[in-house]
Amino acid sequence: MTAEERLPRFPEGFLWGTATAAYQIEGAVTADGRGPSIWDAFCAEPGRVKNGDTGAVACDHYHRWPEDVALMAGLGVNAYRFSVAWPRIQPAGRGRANPKGLDFYERLVDALTERGIAPALTLYHWDLPQALQDGGGWMNRDTAHRFADYAALVADRLGDRVAVWITLNEPFVHMTEGYGLGTHAPGQALLLDALPAAHHLLLGHGLAVPVLRERVSGQVAITNNYSPVRAAGGSAGDRAAADALDALQNRLFTDPLLLGAYPDLSAFGIGPGLPFVRDGDLRVISAPPDRLGVNYYSPTMVAAPGAGSRAGGGPSVLSEVGERLESAALPFEDVPIEGCPVTAFGWPVVPDGLRELLLYLRDRYGDALPPILITENGCSQRDEAGRPDRERIEFLDGHLRAVHRAMEAGVDVRGYFVWSLLDNFEWAEGYDQRFGLVHVDFATRERTPKASYHWFREQLRAQRDRS
């Protein structure tokens, strides 16, 4: 590798990692006392997941985790973000812990630390126990309290060995796709009536924070999916459209955390004084986190309703809501971002959007913004073992350089996690989208590192050599 091909030097102590999620890789959905999750139920419904795929076996990480830890060690990362499957710990979502479930994660954590890889544990990556969903799921306030109980059980076992504790992964996507559109588990199509789920997810985070602080030595964080929103033009209508989507996607799950208040949602016909918010809730939610997890894949461009074109629009997960609302339309319309490559998902590849996003967070939240971890960044490509994998390498290179530029501009970023270590079960897309640095043959579960794995390994080696 020549000096020109190397990434800029990142600070000593920077976390370099990969990321996964329990339901996407573990399989073994009935092993050792695990209870059913909303994703088990969702996958069992015909037509919900492409090709009828399920996570029942996935990458079989539950049995092949030593091989996966060895892949990480060979890669040279110093951190690994994974999630705990709530149904493995509490099969019915409440009560005493299932010891075999905790044993599995303890073995994983100990193996990581023995290899010098810091565990970054996500407590909730969308796999709610089905028993709690039967009682209303995140639309039920009680689920927030059950989440705090679950957090205590995991922290009691692993609190002294995990470096980063992430309460929730992408609550915006979970609320929108799972409760608003019904395109993810639990498959409810409540549209904007899903907002109570947003509040209860945030309340669950807030209730878990003091529970974790009493039990863990690591940092406490939360992760959201962010997309910088761009106005398609300079008109007042386009600017208002961009502000409306920004409020719903980016600020709804960050303003309460860092500013102690919900953003203005009047563009959606939602007034102040949300009826599901009780006295003291925002004080609980806004306990300052040690880190803010940022997941970034692409920006979004919108125009005023009727001014844009839905054909080939951006990646907004809300883009289909306007078509399904009978009495009102959304106050924005997706517009395609032209002139850039796209991933296999059709998402525009805009590395500088990550720098743009990080500066936005710094400018909006100021001193209230904690240090940032890029907890997911990656791209799907239709690749097979032995393919050059050039698109993924270029994606990672461009986005890491964008992170470095943001850091030079004063944004405090402490780590970067590639999504994902392995090709895996990609939710409603089944096994059709491949994000991994490591190719997985889903017939045999054989792992084969891709060219991007080897590229990232050499970049990490160069970072160590220059420290």
UniProtKB/TrEMBL annotation:
PROSITE patterns found in the cross-reference section: GLYCOSYL_HYDROL_F1_2
Q: Does the keyword Hydrolase apply?
A: yes
Q: Which residues form a coiled coil?
A: none
Superkingdom of the organism of origin: Bacteria
Cite the entry's keywords alphabetically.
Glycosidase, Hydrolase
Return the InterPro entries for the record.
GH, GH_1_N_CS, Glyco_hydro_1
Q: What family name appears in the similarity comment?
A: Belongs to the glycosyl hydrolase 1 family.
Query: By what name is this protein known?
Result: GH1 family beta-glucosidase
The organism's taxonomic lineage, starting at the top: Bacteria, Bacillati, Actinomycetota, Actinomycetes, Streptosporangiales
